[in-house]
Amino acid sequence: MINLHRLDLNLLMTLNVLLAEHNVTRAAQRLNLSQPSVSVQLARLREIFNDPLLLPGPRGMQPTARADALREPLREALERLEQAVAPASAFDPQLAANTWRVSATDYMASAILLPAMETLRRQAPNTRLAVFELNPAQIARQAERGDIDLVFHTRDGAPPSLHQRLLFRERYVLAGRAGHPALRRTPTLDAFCQLEHVIVSPDGGGFSAATDTALARLGLSRRVVLSVPHFLFMLETLARTDLVAVVPERLIPDAAMLQVVAPPVEVEGFDMLMLWHERLHRDTGHQWLRQQLIRAVADTR
Hints:
By secondary structure, the protein is α/β, with parallel strands linked by helices. Helix content is 41%, strand content 22%. Helix 8 links the parallel strand 8 (196-200) and strand 9.
C-alpha cells in the first residue's frame, strides 16, 4: 500500500511526463526543471513505488509493467485534478442544467419568481426551479447545509449571516371584488372598520396584522372575519365575496376581478430581500439567476 503522505503533486506530475517522454532530458525541458532535479525525483518515485518504473533501453528509457499500469490512471487523475482547480468557466444559460432551490411564501413566489419565469425558461431551457415553503426559523441552517440556494424574506428577521440584496419596497393597498360598492373610492376610516376583512396568517389562526397595529394607534379596530394561511385562497375569497383585504400591492394581478384603492389608514410597508449563503456568492450560475430576478422585479413596477 502506497503511503499518500509520501507523495506530492510535483512527484506525480514528473512521473506523468516521464511516462510520456521516456527520457529524463526531455521531461526536464517540459517541466522547466534541471535534469539532475528530475533524476532525483525519479529516484524518490522508485523508492515509493518499490519499482524501477523506467529502465535504460536502446531507444530511451523503457517503462516497467508497473509503470505501464500507472500511465492511464495517473494521466486521467491529473487531468481531473486540473479541471477541478481551474478557474470557473463563464455560465452559459443555454447549456446549463442547474436545479435551483428557492424558499418563498406564495406571495413572494408570485411577486418575484412569476415575473421572471418566461425569461428563465427562454434563456435557460434545461434548468429547473424547485420552490420550498418558507420556514423562517430554519433559513440560515438550510442555506448553510445547501438545502436551499436562495431565500426571499422581509428585512425584519433576515439572518445577518446571509448575503442580502434589496429587491423592492412593498406597499399595501385595499382590495375587494370588482364593483364592490364600498371601494368606488377610498372609504372613510369608520366605513373601513365596518367592512368585513380577511387576512393571511402564515402561522395559522391569527386575526391581527400590520393594519390592526396601525388602527390601534388611532384607538380603532376593524372586523376581521376570516384568517387563511395562503394568499391564493384569500384572492379567490375577495373575488367571490364582499370581504376586503389590505394586501401587498404586487400580489394583486392585472385582472378585472378585483378593485384596488388606497387604504384610509397608513400601513407601513416592508423591504423585500433576496438572501443567499457565502458558498454561492461567487458561483457564476447563481450570479446569473440573481441578476434575472433583480431585472424581473424592476420591470414589473
